[in-house]
């Protein structure tokens, strides 16, 4: 019965199936997100060494050290040095054979990079090691991840872990604020999709009503038409579900081809949570039938036509306000700090947010009605659009509901994010204006490094401080730091009034901080060098100066600072080196060359770009998820809007063809379509901004953060939505052109 | 009288089937010509070609000596807007606009101010005896009233040619006659030529002259074959 | 040939029409003709000869009688009145359905078949006939436009009949080949 609607029935079923086919995968993907993120964490864990503490080297031990801060351009690199200490050393996941010194195992993405023209920007870090294999999916977080295991003979027990097995579980707990964020994100992302499916169910409604009228003509009663409609909706929903699942499965195959903000996933990672997937499978048909029944309530189908009751009733405001007010009421008891709350209030938050956001959906037709009713006159396209809206504001409202909810949600969420950012962000103390790249090296002689770095193209300045520890010759258990640098470099770490080569300075911690710490004084005899063989007396002219943060945020507030003229550095033995670099901002590969140069001298050198703040990884991931979700949601909503618009145009195909035959300028028709979309969209966005700010304010009250509005974020969300709408309008042009061809004059 | 609109050797095929196969016709100023013929013979296609809606595959259409077939789309559009009027079988009124606004639409597209356009539209509604539906939307009026509104809209710009494709096709005979009477009467009064496509002899009998389209060719019934 | 179908229809019932006219009041022959022409005879006035021929037929069959004779010369001095039998006849005529005339053996059909048999262009024949029908219809339509309701109804009647003929012409034209085969195979 559902499909027995002839050609029209099929078209309608197909349109709805396509629309839902977009919505269902979105829901399934959303259902897969918690699971998808979890395997990410879990699969990072299996390759993390299972630390056993101090154990002796044996046939089954492996020295393994991760190279922190390794990266290539914007992409993180999972870089690991390994040194098997016997034949039975454990294998990292996805690695078939452990690399010996001079050998390396790389991920497929890295192998591709090494084969590309950018190879020179990376290869030196591997020290010319031979690639002996690739890392399998078991050892990677995603197909596009850059990773390598490099065999090393430099690796020392102090710099790496000695393990007999690799793989350890590591549970991560969500903080209440993070939980709040995830709940709100889910609501914000899923609500537009629910709205979208609700809209899709109504596609072809007018035509269906006309068809049902024909059924009444051959003797069906009201009840029967209702049953038929429900059957159709159910059939369509099931069809769409199948289409949606297929889309999802197909889409899943494409996912591995993309890396978004450092996240790449395997197809198998997108495995929906069975419970959630089941809910989706059940909810879609139920929603479809419910929406159909509700939409038919305002319609009387008579044998000779369809009468719409809804059109004549004036829209009332009061019940439309119930939803948001109810939402506020649900959230109000939570005002105060949920950080300190111990009960699980996720569902309360979700319910409140949903009610609040649905308020926008409920109010939109009313607002459109209110505004449009008053408009009169204007140019022809404007008149056509406004009359259309006056006639049927509900349809247009439905078209932009999704956009409104998405934008409102995003704004509210962004405000929450801005509010709690502080919870997740730590101040690094670094000052990127003084230097933008930091290189740290220890273990090998650091004196060669600054020289090499200065020679790197794109590096404009290098300021280097070398350091070691020294023991007091008279009290061997008392140690102090000794830093060696020229006056210019010392000025980065100390507040110097004057400095000439040969000077020696000392810095002391602020009172009370380090109490008992040893600070060398003039006349003290110190022992320096690897074996503390070099004796050196702190000269009498040593001046005490205050310390300050170096560009990397490191404050050396306790130690001796020696200019090269005061001591023969070459006798010091291995030194640690801190180098702050300035690079040419126009040369985006300068950092890569620095990494190469540093790795050539010291495989373990730490190279990183300086930034003022450092954000907790999970928080960053969640926010990335939001960005992806918001963009995807808007695109989905846009797609559904396009389908709706297309259907509208298709339904008026004959009229459009006739208008063109009459000599109507295509521009006139185009503009009428544009206005017809733009007016509801603008109203929807205004409403969305209002509700978004309200939601944001409420959410901020939940975490007791002062309410501030980030207008840039509001502007961005609105601009994004506007861009999607513009895209939709643009995409509807070719069909509009096609539909206005004379073919449309022929009666169907 | 001078030849106003001339078509010469029109060919038009949709896929393998030729809809027009060397059709020729000539229409004088102010003349009412009925185009008859069996279903699928190419009447509508001929009308679309004559009105510059469809470009024939070959052959020429000349309006006042200007070659319509060679005009770019914009120009043909403007020609249709200013010199031609159209009445179709149904579904030509914009459902959201009132009947009055529908009639005023062609004027408004020519940038006539709303008030003036609606005033002239009202005059035409009067002439077509449908003033009572001026404020109603097309969905609320009868088929006959709707067609009369459409005729008013076709005539409101004082076109030189009215193209009517089965204008009474969806009406009963009484209403059909009324529409035809008003259409021909108004056209004669404003000296507009009418190309009237119909397969009903009674509708065609409102014309000055009939031609028959058969297998994509136009014939005069007087024995002399034109195309 | 000029084809005037309405004459046949009206001509067959002049007698009953006279009876109907006489039923309202007795009339002279001259009055009868005038009344008839006014109401029914627009296209062709009734010839005097036919008036008296009909009246004498009605007189003979006892449907009318001579009501009075005015002084003077000629038959036109007689006033006629309807008899009981006449009223009954009018009753019967009005209450009886007209026998539909199927024109199975119309002249046109004969012409077409003959044209086919003699290999003359039957299509041209049909076209010529169609053109003539259309011409007449156009004329009627024009007349209808200026006329009052009675005139319009009469014209419409004729128009519908002509239209029916036209349909037949159209259909025959479309099936001419078929017909030709059949005619030839029988011949
Ligand atoms: N856009 C089109 N695409 C394909 N075929 C077409 C198209 N327009 C017309 N035709 C074909 O061309 C032929 C003539 O069509 P046309 O509409 O001109 O006939 P018509 O005489 O107007 O018929 P009717 O009286 O049924 O309206 C038909 O065979 C039709 O199928
Ligand atoms: Mg047609």
Shape of chain C: elongated
**Content-based structural category of chain C:** mainly alpha
DSSP strand (E) fraction of chain C? 5-15%
Distance between the termini of chain C: 27 Å
State the CATH topology of the largest domain in chain C.
Answer: Arc Repressor Mutant, subunit A
What CATH architecture of the largest domain in chain C would you give? Answer: Orthogonal Bundle
Percentage of residues in DSSP E strands of chain A? 5-15%
Q: Looking across the biggest beta sheet of chain C, what order are the strands in?
A: 1-3-2
- Total count of strands of chain C: 3
User: How big is the Rg of chain A?
Assistant: 34 Å
Measured between the Cα atoms of the first and last residue of chain A, the distance is: 23 Å
Tally of separate domains of chain A: 3
Structural class of chain A: alpha+beta
Tell how many strands the DSSP assignment of chain A holds: 21
Radius of gyration from the alpha-carbon trace of chain C, in angstroms: 22 Å
Low-pLDDT stretches of chain C are 1-12
Q: Based on CA inertia axes, which overall geometry of chain A fits?
A: elongated
| Stretches with pLDDT under 50, minimum 5 residues of chain A | 1-8, 35-44
Main interface: chain pair and counts:
A-B, 24 and 29 residues
Brief rundown of the structure:
Chain A is 49% helix and 14% strand. With 748 residues, chain A is an alpha+beta fold. The two termini of chain A are 23 Å apart.
């Amino acid at each position: 019965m559902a499909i027995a609607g002839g050609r029209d029935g099929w078209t309608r079923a197909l349109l709805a199936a396509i629309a839902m086919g977009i919505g269902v995968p979105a829901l399934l993907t959303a259902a897969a997100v918690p699971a998808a993120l979890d395997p990410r964490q879990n699969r990072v864990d299996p390759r993390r060494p299972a630390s056993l503490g101090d154990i002796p080297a044996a046939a089954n031990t492996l020295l393994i050290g991760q190279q922190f801060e390794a990266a290539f351009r914007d992409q993180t690199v999972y870089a690991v040095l390994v040194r098997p200490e016997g034949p039975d050393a454990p294998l990292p996941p996805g690695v078939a054979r452990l690399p010996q010194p001079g050998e390396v195992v790389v991920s497929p993405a890295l192998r591709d990079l090494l084969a590309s023209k950018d190879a020179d920007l990376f290869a030196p870090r591997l020290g010319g090691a031979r690639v002996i294999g690739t890392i399998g999916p078991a050892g990677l977080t995603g197909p596009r991840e850059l990773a390598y295991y490099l065999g090393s003979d430099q690796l020392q027990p102090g710099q790496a872990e000695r393990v007999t097995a690799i793989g350890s579980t590591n549970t991560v707990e969500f903080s209440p604020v993070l939980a709040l964020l995830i709940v709100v994100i889910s609501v914000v992302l899923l609500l537009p999709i629910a709205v979208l499916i609700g809209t899709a169910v109504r596609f072809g409604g007018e035509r269906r009503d006309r068809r049902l009228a024909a059924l009444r003509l051959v003797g069906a009663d009201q009840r029967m038409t209702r049953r038929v409609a429900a059957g159709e909706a159910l059939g369509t929903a099931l069809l769409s579900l199948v289409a949606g699942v297929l889309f999802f499965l197909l889409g899943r195959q494409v996912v591995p081809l993309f890396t978004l903000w450092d996240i790449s996933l395997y197809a198998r990672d997108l495995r929906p949570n069975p419970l959630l997937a089941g809910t989706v499978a059940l909810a879609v048909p139920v929603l479809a039938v419910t929406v159909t029944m509700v939409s038919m309530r305002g319609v009387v189908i008579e044998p000779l036509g369809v009468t719409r009751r809804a059109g004549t009733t004036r829209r009332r405001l009061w019940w439309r306000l119930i939803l948001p007010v109810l939402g506020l009421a649900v959230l109000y008891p939570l005002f105060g700090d949920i950080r300190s709350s111990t009960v699980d209030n996720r569902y309360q938050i979700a319910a409140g947010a949903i009610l609040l956001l649905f308020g926008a959906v409920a109010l939109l037709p009313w607002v459109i009605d209110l505004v449009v009713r008053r408009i009169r006159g204007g140019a022809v396209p404007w008149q056509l659009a406004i009359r259309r809206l006056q006639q049927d504001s509900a349809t247009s409202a439905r078209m932009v509901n999704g956009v409104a909810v998405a934008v409102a949600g995003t704004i509210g969420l962004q405000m929450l994010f801005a509010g709690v950012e502080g919870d997740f962000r730590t101040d690094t103390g670094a000052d990127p204006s003084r230097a933008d790249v930091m290189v740290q090296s220890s273990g090998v002689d650091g004196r060669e490094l600054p020289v090499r770095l200065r020679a790197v193209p794109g590096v404009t300045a290098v300021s280097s401080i070398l350091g070691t520890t020294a023991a007091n010759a008279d009290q061997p258990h008392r140690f102090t730091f000794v830093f060696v640098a020229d006056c210019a470099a010392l000025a980065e770490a100390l507040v110097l009034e004057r400095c000439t080569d040969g000077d020696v300075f000392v810095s002391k911690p602020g009172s009370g901080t380090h109490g008992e710490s040893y600070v060398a004084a003039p006349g003290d005899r110190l022992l320096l060098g690897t074996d503390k063989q070099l004796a050196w007396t702190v000269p009498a002219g040593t001046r005490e100066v205050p310390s300050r943060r170096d560009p990397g945020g490191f404050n050396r507030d306790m130690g001796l600072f020696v200019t090269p003229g005061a001591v023969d550095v070459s006798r010091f033995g291995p030194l640690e080196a801190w180098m702050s670099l300035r690079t040419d901002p126009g040369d985006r590969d300068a950092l890569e060359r620095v990494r190469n140069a540093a790795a050539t001298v010291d495989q373990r050198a730490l190279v990183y770009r300086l930034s003022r703040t450092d954000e907790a990884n999970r928080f960053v991931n969640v926010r990335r998820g939001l960005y992806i979700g918001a963009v995807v949601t808007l695109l989905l909503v846009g797609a559904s809007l396009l389908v709706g618009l297309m259907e509208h145009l298709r339904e008026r195909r004959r009229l459009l063809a006739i208008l063109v035959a009459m000599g109507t300028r295509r521009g006139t028709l185009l503009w009428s379509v544009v206005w017809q979309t733009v007016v509801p969209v603008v109203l929807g966005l205004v409403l969305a901004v209002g509700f978004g700010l309200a939601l944001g304010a409420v959410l901020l009250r939940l975490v007791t953060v002062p309410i501030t509005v980030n207008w840039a974020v509001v502007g961005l969300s609105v601009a994004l939505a506007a861009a999607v709408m513009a895209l939709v309008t643009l995409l509807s042009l070719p069909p509009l052109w096609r539909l206005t061809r004379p073919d449309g004059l022929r009666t169907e | 009288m001078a030849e106003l609109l001339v078509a010469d050797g029109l060919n038009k095929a949709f896929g393998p089937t030729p809809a027009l196969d060397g059709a020729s016709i000539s229409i004088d100023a102010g003349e009412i010509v009925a185009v008859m013929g069996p279903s699928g013979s190419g009447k509508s296609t001929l009308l679309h070609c004559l009105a510059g809606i469809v470009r024939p595959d070959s052959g020429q259409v000349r309006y006042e000596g200007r070659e319509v077939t060679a005009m770019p789309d914009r120009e043909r559009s403007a020609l249709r807007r200013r010199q031609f009027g159209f009445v179709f079988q149904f579904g030509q009124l914009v459902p959201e606009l009132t009947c009055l606004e529908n009639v005023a639409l062609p004027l408004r597209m020519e940038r006539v101010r709303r008030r003036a356009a609606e005033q002239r539209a009202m005059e035409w509604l009067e002439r077509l005896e449908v003033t009572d539906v001026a404020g109603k939307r097309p969905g609320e009026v009868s088929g006959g009233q709707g067609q009369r509104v459409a005729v008013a809209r076709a005539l409101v710009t004082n076109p030189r040619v009215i193209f009517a494709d089965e204008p009474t096709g969806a009406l009963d005979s009484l209403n059909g006659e009324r529409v035809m009477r008003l259409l021909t009467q108004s056209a004669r009064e404003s000296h507009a030529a009418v190309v009237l496509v119909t397969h009903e002899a009674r509708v065609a009998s409102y014309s000055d002259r009939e031609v028959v389209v058969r297998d994509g060719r136009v014939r005069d019934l007087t024995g002399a074959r034109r195309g | 040939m000029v084809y005037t179908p309405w004459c046949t229809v009206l001509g067959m019932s002049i007698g009953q029409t006279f009876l109907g006219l006489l039923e309202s009041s007795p009339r002279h022959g001259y009055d009868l003709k005038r009344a008839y022409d006014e109401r029914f005879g627009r296209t062709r006035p009734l010839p005097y000869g036919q008036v008296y021929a009909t009246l004498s037929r009605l007189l003979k069959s006892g449907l009318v009688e001579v009501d009075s004779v005015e002084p003077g010369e000629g038959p036109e001095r007689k006033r006629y009145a309807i008899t009981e039998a006449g009223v009954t006849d009018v009753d019967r005529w009005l209450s009886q359905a007209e026998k539909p005339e199927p024109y199975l053996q119309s002249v046109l059909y004969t012409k077409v078949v003959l044209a086919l048999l003699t290999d003359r262009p039957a299509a041209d024949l049909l076209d010529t006939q169609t053109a003539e029908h259309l011409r007449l219809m156009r004329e009627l339509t024009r007349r209808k436009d200026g006329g009052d309701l009675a005139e319009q109804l009469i014209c419409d009647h004729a128009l519908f009949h002509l239209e029916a003929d036209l349909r037949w012409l159209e259909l025959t034209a479309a099936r001419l080949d078929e017909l030709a085969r059949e005619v030839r195979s029988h011949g």
